[in-house]
């Protein structure tokens, strides 16, 4: 039989026979499976996972708690109605991002490690809803016009998550559905800048720091340390199943009261696992969630406008001393009032909203106001309180203040507002 000869990367001839050909079509992707542990596992396994992470990943104790409990939910994410993402990032290289993500993967059952994923390859792997996917250097996968991977990451947080595609078959067009339900961890330098606000809010973030010499951790080599991780991971998985009923019994009402709205979906799986052991695990998660809530309370351009409008309502006579307040206000008049508002530094940002030579051209316009307030409230053609024949377009004060109450961080809200002749009540 004729043998083919190829040259390997050492420059040596490597005989290849028809029965031993390189598979240039690639190989099937296989998930890592943790071995089954048959004995009883005590609560100390959670500390053991934490210690193993600390051996290889430089993190604060609070970050290790986040990582430990996230790994737990990644093993049993199908128990919950929402699986949050884990994002590992840093400002520069050599901070241990890949090693942190690899440690997560080796402790997670039915997990896949992917270094270059398209949207199509991602949702092909997640079809059965039982996989945890780890994406290395994800920012490189998000460069370009194809947003399929972002869509899959976003929709796959929930059991009914899916993407659709058109199949052109012999019977014409048909819509095909591909499931995206999966636990996902990813890493990359500055990867938090490559995702939109929805994915960002659905992700637990680990911001890595470069370790000093005396803080260096052991280099993780799967060939050397894989067996150790598999042993700890298998016992952690068994402990989770032993406590399945306790974990599933955790309710939203058991969360710290400052965690609300989408935050409850994101934090519930981690707190549910931590609640079984309590103590520092609950405290650490509470501290992280509290810090994150404080950051999320920072004002956006839109909420800053609502806060300014709320201030104008409270101090109406200062802003419009010669004109009584109506039940509505025309957009151009509201824009004019905004230009009078000064921040704590005495600056008037809405009077310098645009860059222009003419001071009048710098002012915020009603078109600018439409864009800022559109997500919260829109003008209506309702009657004036002073002139029932006036049906011109305007913002209803009650709706403006209701939007402020709903969307401003709690520290900025005003529960009681003055009566209509001095202020507008929206109780």
Describe the structure.
- Helix content is 39%, strand content 13%.
- Mean pLDDT is 87; it is low at 1-17 and 416-427.
- The chain has 2 domains: 44-296, Rossmann fold, CATH 3.40.50.300; 301-412, no CATH class.
- α1 (44-56) runs antiparallel to α7.
- By secondary structure, the protein is an alpha/beta fold.
- α4 (119-125) links the parallel β4 (111-114) and β5.
- The radius of gyration is 28 Å and the shape is elongated.
- It has helices at 44-56, 61-75, 97-106, 119-125, 148-155, 197-201, 222-242, 244-248, 262-277, 280-296, 301-314, 316-319, 331-338, 359-362, 366-373, 397-407, and strands at 4-7, 13-16, 85-90, 111-114, 132-135, 162-169, 172-179, 183-189, 203-207, 328-329, 395-396.
- It contains 16 helices and 11 strands.
- A 5-stranded parallel β-sheet has the order 4-5-8-3-9. It has a two-stranded antiparallel sheet with strand order 1-2. Strands 6-7 form a two-stranded antiparallel ribbon.
Side by side, the strands of the main sheet go 4-5-8-3-9
CATH class of the largest domain: Alpha Beta
- What Rg, in angstroms, do the CA atoms define? 28 Å
Helix content: 25-40%
Give the CATH architecture of the largest domain. Answer: 3-Layer(aba) Sandwich
SS summary, helix count: 16
Major sheet: size, sense and barrel closure? Answer: 5 strands, parallel
Beta-strand fraction estimate: 5-15%
Q: Give the tally of β-strands.
A: 11
Total domains? 2
The mean pLDDT is 87
CATH fold name of the largest domain, please? Rossmann fold
Spatial shape: elongated
End-to-end Cα distance, whole Å, is 90 Å
**Oligomerization:** single chain
């Amino acid at each position: 039989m004729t043998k083919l000869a190829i040259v390997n990367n050492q420059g040596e001839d490597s005989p290849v026979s028809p029965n031993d050909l390189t598979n240039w079509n690639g190989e099937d992707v296989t998930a890592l499976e943790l071995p089954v542990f048959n004995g009883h596992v005590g609560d100390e396994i959670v500390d053991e996972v934490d210690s193993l992470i600390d051996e290889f990943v430089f993190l604060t104790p609070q970050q290790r708690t986040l990582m430990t409990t996230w790994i737990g939910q990644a093993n049993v994410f199908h128990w919950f109605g929402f699986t949050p993402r884990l994002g590992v990032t840093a400002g520069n290289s050599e901070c241990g991002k890949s090693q942190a993500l690899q440690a997560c993967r080796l402790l997670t059952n039915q997990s896949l490690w992917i270094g270059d994923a398209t949207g199509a390859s991602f949702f092909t792997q997640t079809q059965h809803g039982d996989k945890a996917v780890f994406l290395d250097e994800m920012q490189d996968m998000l460069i370009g016009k194809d947003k399929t991977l972002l869509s899959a990451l976003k929709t796959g947080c929930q059991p009914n998550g899916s993407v659709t595609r058109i199949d052109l078959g012999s019977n014409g067009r048909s819509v095909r559905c591909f499931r995206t339900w999966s636990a996902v961890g990813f890493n990359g330098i500055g990867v938090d800048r490559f995702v939109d606000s929805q994915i960002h809010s659905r992700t637990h973030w680990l911001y890595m720091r470069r370790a000093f010499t005396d803080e260096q951790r052991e280099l993780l080599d799967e060939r050397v340390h894989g067996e150790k991780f598999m042993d700890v991971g298998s016992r952690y998985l068994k402990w989770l199943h032993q406590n399945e009923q306790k974990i599933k019994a955790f309710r939203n009402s058991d969360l710290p009261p400052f965690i609300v709205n989408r935050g409850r979906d994101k934090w519930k799986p981690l707190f549910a696992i931590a609640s079984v052991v309590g103590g520092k695990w609950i405290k650490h998660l509470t501290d992280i969630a509290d810090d994150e809530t404080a950051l999320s309370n920072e004002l956006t351009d839109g909420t800053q406008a609502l806060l300014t409008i709320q201030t104008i309502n409270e101090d109406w006579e200062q802003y419009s001393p010669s004109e009584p307040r109506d039940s509505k206000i025309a957009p151009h008049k509201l824009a004019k009032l905004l230009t009078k508002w000064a921040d704590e530094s005495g600056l008037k940002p809405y009077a310098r909203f645009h860059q222009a030579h003419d001071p009048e051209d710098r002012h915020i316009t009603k078109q600018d106001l439409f864009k800022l307030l559109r997500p919260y409230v829109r003008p209506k053609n309702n009657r004036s309180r002073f002139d029932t024949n006036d049906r011109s377009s305007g913002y209803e004060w009650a709706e403006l203040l209701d939007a402020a109450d709903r969307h401003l961080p709690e520290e900025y809200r005003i529960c009681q507002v003055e009566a209509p002749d001095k202020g507008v009540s929206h109780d």
